[in-house]
Design goal:
The protein is of the alpha/beta class and 340 residues long. The chain has eleven helices and 14 strands. Keywords: NAD.
């Protein structure tokens, strides 16, 4: 297939493009390479795909030097006119939409960018899919939509009308907007609620990278809610496998062709156990500053993945110890160039 992957320089986007290329698909990667975190990490991810940083200019195609079936273009989702022209010229089969302004805590400080990127940008993607008859739109939602739900595991049938961060509200809005377009225009859409993704090339603003960085520097790590947290940590390879299987398996053509699935390991890990695994694989004991819960955060996430298993017969396979070992190995080899 010919597939557009937005957010291709991001953590999940990069790994998704890499896997799609090995499967023989034609891929156009798309990203605005913003400075929410150090853009050099994004350029280094793209370099793994054969995309030369020195050739990247706004709205110009860059062909991969190592993959004949891969190109990249730097542009912004909010540039609607150029986006429509891109869809017209390229005639994509499917779209995997992973571009978004990420970060729960950052949304408390800079709300405007979340509306612009996550709502306006998503509307532009939906409009492009409508106008150019895309066979399936797969897009990133988030476990953040569950807010302070006390019932676990979190199920896609749960009420998620009370988000506790603007980031979560934008992701919930994406699901509502997708439903509307599926209903009105018969566009197959699938939203994937990701649960705490970690692994090589991960975002430096997320806890796994922050923990490893501080432990290796022998500086204290911030442990929120005094360590009384649980997360459904999910290794990146498991996320990518789910994304690609979903892309290949659109929801039924019955009205509306719309679906939402959780993707998580479905095994909540205590935060202190997660830290202990990093300590073991770095060979260094962490200094810990125990702190109260942060605004917009939740004490526990736990994915019910029954709908995912039913739809694509897939269950994440990577256990915590295996995933942390791979992540630490990569991080140590790359740490000189990470900025946190």
């Amino acid at each position: 297939m010919k597939i557009l992957v937005t957010g291709a320089a991001g953590f999940i986007g990069y790994h998704t493009v890499k896997k799609l290329l090995t499967l023989g698909h034609q891929v156009l990667g798309f990203d605005n390479i913003n400075d929410y975190y150090d853009p050099q990490l994004k350029y280094d991810r793209l370099a793994q795909l054969g995309i030369d940083k020195t050739q990247i200019e706004n709205r110009q195609y860059v062909a991969s030097k190592t993959h004949s079936n891969c190109r990249f273009i730097k542009m912004d989702l909010t540039d609607k006119k150029i986006l429509m022209e891109l869809f017209r010229l390229e005639d994509f089969d499917t779209v995997i939409h992973l571009a978004a302004q990420a970060g729960v805590r950052y949304s408390l400080e800079n709300p405007d960018i979340y509306i612009k990127s996550n709502v306006e940008g998503f509307l532009n993607i939906l409009e492009a899919c409508r106008r150019f008859s895309i066979k399936h739109l797969t897009y990133a939602s988030s476990s953040s939509v569950y807010g302070n739900n006390s019932q676990t595991p979190f199920s896609v049938t749960d009420n998620v009308d009370h988000p506790i961060s603007l980031y979560a509200a934008t992701k919930k809005s994406n699901e509502l907007m997708a439903y509307t377009y599926s209903h009105l225009y018969n566009i197959p859409t699938t939203g994937l609620r990701f649960f705490t993704v970690y692994g090589p090339w991960g975002r430096p603003d997320m806890a796994p990278s922050l923990f490893i960085s501080s432990i290796l520097k022998n500086t204290p790590i911030k442990v929120f809610n005094h360590g009384n947290m649980e997360r459904d940590f999910t290794y990146i390879d498991d996320i990518v496998e789910g994304v690609i299987r979903i892309n290949n398996t659109p929801p039924s053509r019955e009205q509306p062709p719309y679906a939402i699935h959780n993707i998580g390991n479905s095994t909540p890990i205590k935060l202190m156990d997660f830290i202990a695994s990093i300590e073991y694989h770095t060979g260094t004991k962490a200094k810990k500053n125990f702190m109260p819960m942060q605004a917009g955060d939740v004490p526990k996430t736990f994915a019910d993945i029954s709908s995912l298993k039913q739809h694509i017969q897939y269950t994440p396979q990577t256990n915590l110890d295996e995933g942390i070992k791979k992540f630490v190995t990569w991080y140590i080899s790359y740490k000189e160039r990470i900025v946190v």
